[in-house]
Design a protein that fits this description.
279 residues, alpha+beta, four-stranded antiparallel sheet, 40% helix
Length: 279
């Protein structure tokens, strides 16, 4: 095997590739094996297996199996050469995503530190019914005071253009989340976006101009047979505080196809939809 191809496959784990393309797996008893509905044919019972140790797949339904290059050939109906080219583009995209995730993680950590220094933000959380410091810490809730984010991140080596491109600052270098409580949105353990809720007179909701990801805190909820789906993140936080840890949020009333797939990935799951009754 060409060493460049081996390196390509090593840097693109099959499970991660499939999840990036909305495949929803369930872990088997063995930690290195996952199963889900086959992306290559229609089925109602999961028969598509991925072994993360060997980085291989096999479907007991259609009989196809192999490595990631072979999967892309079958899934996209392309040649071997086209499959390799596609995966090289995926690898470049993954590198950009990793850089953005690192920047967002640094930003979220900075905001988290600022929360404890902002008494008005803490009082706002209390007015919204959120007082449990353990829940606040677990959800990574922070606060953007405004005015200092650019200096903090550029001191960490992040260029102005990257902050601007990500949407963290505007053209004048001002913090896009100024005077907002911050919730980091994670997907597969990585921060993919930030949600900000204004504590002042500004428009209440703000997300970065990028995908909001899947359902909020889905990694903690995905194994539950009963799920509570709420509209907002404060609804989720207060329910978690009260012990309803099977609660997730759609970050709004409009479910994306990926979020619908997450809710439906377990047959027989009971879902309670608890949205606000807006007029």
């Amino acid at each position: 095997m060409d060493p460049d191809l081996e390196q390509l496959k090593q840097h693109l784990p099959m499970l991660e590739y499939l999840q990036r393309h909305n495949w929803t797996p369930r872990r088997r008893s063995a930690r290195q094996e996952f199963v889900g509905l086959c992306p290559l044919h229609e089925e109602t019972r999961p028969s598509f297996y991925v072994n993360t140790c060997k980085n291989l797949f096999y479907c007991h339904g259609c009989g196809h199996g192999g490595d990631l290059i072979r999967f892309v050939e079958l899934f996209l109906h392309v040649s071997f050469r086209q499959s390799v080219a596609h995966l090289q583009q995926e690898l470049a995209s993954r590198a950009r995503s990793a850089a953005a995730a690192e920047l967002l993680a640094q930003t979220a950590a900075y905001y988290q530190l600022q929360l404890h220094r902002a008494s008005d933000a803490v009082r706002y959380l209390e007015r919204r019914g959120l007082r449990d410091s353990a829940v606040i810490e677990e959800l990574g809730i922070g606060y953007a005071p405004g005015g200092r984010l650019r200096g903090h991140l550029t001191a960490q080596g992040y260029p102005f253009d990257l902050l601007l491109h990500t949407g963290l600052i505007d053209n004048q270098g001002r913090d896009a989340f100024c005077r907002r409580v911050i919730f980091p949105c994670r997907q597969h353990g990585r921060i993919v976006n930030l949600y900000g809720r204004s504590i002042g007179a500004a428009f209440p909701h703000r997300l970065l101009p990028r995908s909001k990801g899947g359902l909020f805190a889905w990694d903690s909820v995905s194994q539950c047979s009963t799920v509570i789906l709420v509209e907002g993140l404060f609804d989720l936080a207060v329910l978690w505080q009260s012990g309803f840890r099977n609660t997730t949020s759609a970050l709004g009333v409009h479910l994306t196809p990926a979020q619908l797939d997450q809710l439906c990935d377990r047959p027989g799951r009971l879902i309670y939809i608890v949205f606000d009754q807006d007029e």
